[in-house]
Amino acid sequence: MAKEDFYQVLGVKRDAKPEEIKKAYRRLARKYHPDVNPGDKSAEERFKRITEAHEVLSDPKKRPVYDRFGQYSDQLADAAARGAGPGGPGGAGAGRGAPFDFTGFDWGNTTTSSTAGGSSSFRDIFSELFGGGKGEKEPPRPVPQKGADVEMPLALSFEEAVTGLTTNITVNRSEQCPRCNGAGDTGGNPVVCATCHGAGQVQRAGGRLRFAQECPDCGGAGKRRPPCALCNGKGTVPKAETVKVRIPAGVDTGSRVRIPGKGEGGRMGAQAGDLFIITNVGKHKHFTRKGENIYVKVPVSIAEAALGARIEVPTIEGKAQLKIPPGTQSGAQFRMRERGIPSLRNPQARGDQFVEVQVTFPRVISEETKELLRRYAQLNPENPRVAMGLE
Known about the structure:
alpha+beta; 3-stranded mixed sheet; 4-stranded mixed sheet
């Protein structure tokens, strides 16, 4: 029985454009995918037929062969390239030595007994006799490939982030295999790929659906050369290395410090990836950081706030003097220029420090102090709530 025409399978015209074929395939694939129709054998067979039709009609080299012969194979493609086939030189009926015209032949259902007592498809026998087919595809040769980057967290104190530091850390990375030079194999005859078990494809999940993709280890050939015994085919071997890391002054939580060439090893002589240190800065008991500026709250007495004073305040570099003008209110903020965090973009620049004063009252007031406050209230009968419109 002749197979259904591929154009009819996808429901497109014979002159359909590639984008029309692609659109029709996607629509039908979503409808008949086995994951959408669990247990439905007819839907599964329909999906296979849709996939086969799309593989041929979407390929600009295979489609002309199919249009000419009504069937595609590598041998027919070679015949078309030589001008053979129906109606062409050496075509069917052209005389002795003409290639067979397999148009309309049901390859999938034709089997023949094997010597082992089983059965194999005529397509497989044809491939064995004339070459070609997926099983004859050569395993891909490895190409130079840069190693992957590696990220590592590093906890720092507030002070270390401000001043910077140099430290040694142990990195579990990899390096190019010295035995196979990153190839993953040492030559030899191909064997069945252990990743795809000879299928040439692996399954990948995409939400509720599963899709077949070309096997990354054998390139779809189904076979690969015997893997290197040292790296087990990976092309790299593990390595624990002590790396000297310089953390610049001014880093914050989430900063990325790059150490070139200390990531995963490359393959076939390609360079290694990079190591990125992700910093996590701890909190300070007095300072709060916002970008390159720091903030601190400092208590002052009533007398210092009322009369003015020069007080000592903490900074990230030690103690410093700050002038408080007379009549300073609680919550007032003073700016100390260039007393903040060094800039990562410009090490010569740095942020500012902002000091917020908080007026405090004595916990124990003597009778003499109380009398002085009563005298003060008599001499200064102001009501601060009136100025705010609260009375």
